[in-house]
Design a protein that fits this description.
Layout lengths: L1 H5 L11 H21 L1 H26 L5 H23 L6 H17 L21
Helix pairs in contact: 2-3, 3-4
């Protein structure tokens, strides 16, 4: 189930603890939900913050308990996930639409430009108009 949520987990993540893999999957599902609301850039930023916090905790635990504790595998799994999310964020930085709302805004801006650049016909004399009456003779 974790593999389906986060995509293809790296081989280094196979030895990572269940808690770490669950945390990565939870962060990814929250990122996907946030992407629908706020766009890809915002969702990647929030996910990267959470992943970096988790990585720091795992590094501290690894230093305290030594290399045989299983924490180095967790650090590798988190580092790989951070790189994956950074690649997603880089797609947005290259100028692609950041999300659904941005794509709609882009369409709206291009529509406004087309009206602003349209040729205008000269004003024509429409003659005398009657005000408030039906003009039936």
């Amino acid at each position: 189930m974790t593999r389906a949520i986060t995509g293809a987990l790296p081989p280094a993540a196979a030895a990572a603890s269940h808690e770490t893999l669950s945390a990565i999957a939870d962060i990814e599902s929250k990122r996907q939900d946030l992407e629908k609301d706020a766009g890809l850039a915002a969702s990647c930023g929030a996910a990267l913050r959470q992943l970096h916090e988790l990585l720091e905790r795992e590094r501290e635990a690894s230093q305290l308990s030594g290399p045989d504790s299983g924490h180095p595998a967790n650090v590798r799994a988190l580092s790989t996930e951070i790189e994956r999310v950074k690649k997603l964020a880089a797609i947005t930085a290259q100028g692609h639409p950041a999300g659904y709302a941005d794509a709609a805004g882009l369409r709206q801006r291009s529509r406004q430009k087309s009206w602003q650049n349209a040729q205008r016909s000269p004003a024509r004399n429409k003659g005398r108009r009657t005000m408030g009456r039906a003009g039936g003779r």
